[in-house]
Amino acid sequence: MTSFTLVLQLVAVMVLGLMCGSELNVAVFGNPTLDRQPLDVHIPMRASFASLLGRVMPFWMTGSAVMNLLLLLPFAGVSGLAWRLSAISSGIQIGAVLFSLVAPVPINKRIEKWTSSSLPEDWRFQEHRWGVYHWFRTCGLVVAFALLGLSLAAR
Fold it and tell me: 73-92: string of b/e by CB count within 10 Å (b at 16+)?
């Protein structure tokens, strides 16, 4: 295995790990903290986070998946168990990107437009559904991160 491959694996693990940390932060700390705020604080903050993360996460998630995919190409020199673990991790990441497009992203786009005076009647339901989708995606990404880390150890 070349030093390029090692650097690529380390960067892929680091980027995915930081993304998992961000996603866990939203699930464990961010959303519960927002939920305890008065409506006039909660809604603008939720909309602001939806807007910001809605712009950043597509690049972060896709970029992370692409880095992982690069490890599967012949020039990377990854083989055996390390390759299989990276392949499974990559599959989970691609699944997370596709899942995001059909489940949480449409809700996120609606949340971006919310104001305290223009909330839909089912706004709590939409937030809850987004939260469930977010937890599901986050758990998948954490598993992908663990597998990618194991692939580095198995090289």
Answer: eeebbbeeebbebbbbbbeb
